[in-house]
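User: Teach me something about this protein's shape.
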Amino acid sequence: MKRLIHLLSLSVLLSSLLSQANGSNVDVFLLGGQSNAVGVGFISEVSDLSVLYNRQIMLYHSSSLNSGQPARQWTTLRPAAGSLGNFGPEIGFGNRVAELFPGHQIAIIKHAVGGTDLGAEWNPGTHSDDVDHFGVQFKIFVETVDAGIDSLIAQGYTPVIKGMLWQQGERDARNDSYGQVYDRNLSHFIGRVREQFNAPSMPFVYGQVLPVALSGYAYRDQVRQGQFNVDEDSGQVFATDRARLVLADDLPMNSDNLHLSAAGQLELGIRFAHAFAPVVSAKAVDFNADGIIDKADVSALIDYWHQDEPTYDIAPPPFGDGIVDVQDLIVVANHLFREVPPADLIAHWTFDEAEGGFAFDSIGLSHGTLSGDPQWEPANGKQDGALRFDGTDDFARTPFVLDPSLGSFSVFAWVKGGAPGQVIISQQNGVNWLMADTVDGALRTDLEQAGTPGRRGSPPGPPLVSSATVTDGDWHRIGFVTDGSSRSLYVDGVEVAGDMATDLEPGSGGLTIGAGGNLEIGSFLSGLIDDVRVYETALSPEEIAALTE
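Assistant: First, the predicted structure itself:
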């Protein structure tokens, strides 16, 4: 116990010293890849041009890109793409990561060229001195990063490489030699970048490619599978520590179905930023997997003090910093005596934030972005805080979480208030998952059986409507459960409606909380929402009752 008290005291002292020493530090993020890293988002499609510029964020790019400013000179964040009419993920990323890490000086170093492959042009060689085998783009990338870092040092800054963003793979999908070994090449590339810049624990975040099967990309499936294989949680041979795949299949595309549109580029950058979001789940802290965070987990962490042990190096999130130290201990202390969420809980928004424009997913990376002006209510939730929606234009949106057509799942939330026709949870470009019926405010879902085409086909099944009113101004735990063959609605732990329904209509968008998926007039909720949960299984009646306690 004395040892723990000593370490906790030390944590306070070190945190104070670190905060005082951060004045000249610069958090550097590297950005590379091919055309969707270059960016073919059209500036003309952006309604608010002010989002494209941020004088608080630093940008440095190679001569392959055009920002309207000289190449290889530090400037401020602005579009830097193949032409002055386009932009890439640097915009969404820079703006969002600065919001997620207030008080940090953010700098981006970018080199990307369209139509380039990882197998040859980005080949990093076998080691840092293997310059003769560097691919042409990797060589330029190294020169650009080194020059940018040297320039920061010359200006009196202390640059620290915090991570790399990578958007690439399309070209390799056209090559039988490279496409089939993309996972091997990407894992090797990550290791070499870390070695090249002396950043052995650098997080590496990369985006999904080729959502649509296109002619000429014969090895699309191999490249996409390779991307999944490299993710640190894949369990595959080429799984790489601190490497994370960002899902992007649902992002808007240009008409060629190959390049991300302006909206797609902005969202990709935001998702990259959220991959670095300051959230550590309780699962990551339950080192001995006994279902609760306690002194055993603290002792396990202390056993690896000042060692590079990824299991216990959990801070700063999401990948740690290469050493088990006071930052990791503080995270464990914040979770002490909390129970660990069940394995089938795939997204959980507690709405316990007191401020800010994001609702963090405590389980994964499905962090919600607030729109309109919903208000945090830290003391007025059913469980701690809640989020209040005004019924006019307030809502929260998340990345993709789940496709309802794929089988069993459950979704639950606490809600207070609302009116007939208003929506609690929906799916973008999909249907309303949980809403108040337009007639009397009874709980309803539009998750219905898909129709079948053809002369003898059938229309989609009807919505499921209960007789339990949820708009009476009291708190209600509402939910929907399907096991793949039936569907049920629950209010306050009790099943209030159910029927047989197989093959629900599919959905590929993120979730909208507090409004209809397409933001229809009249769908915006006027009330409070708290503790939204999505499970990838059908919860049992006992589990549902426990959620209501």
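Now, about its shape. Residues 1-23 have pLDDT under 50 and may be disordered. The two ends are 34 Å apart (CA to CA). If you'd like, I can walk through any region in more detail.
User: That's plenty for now, thanks!
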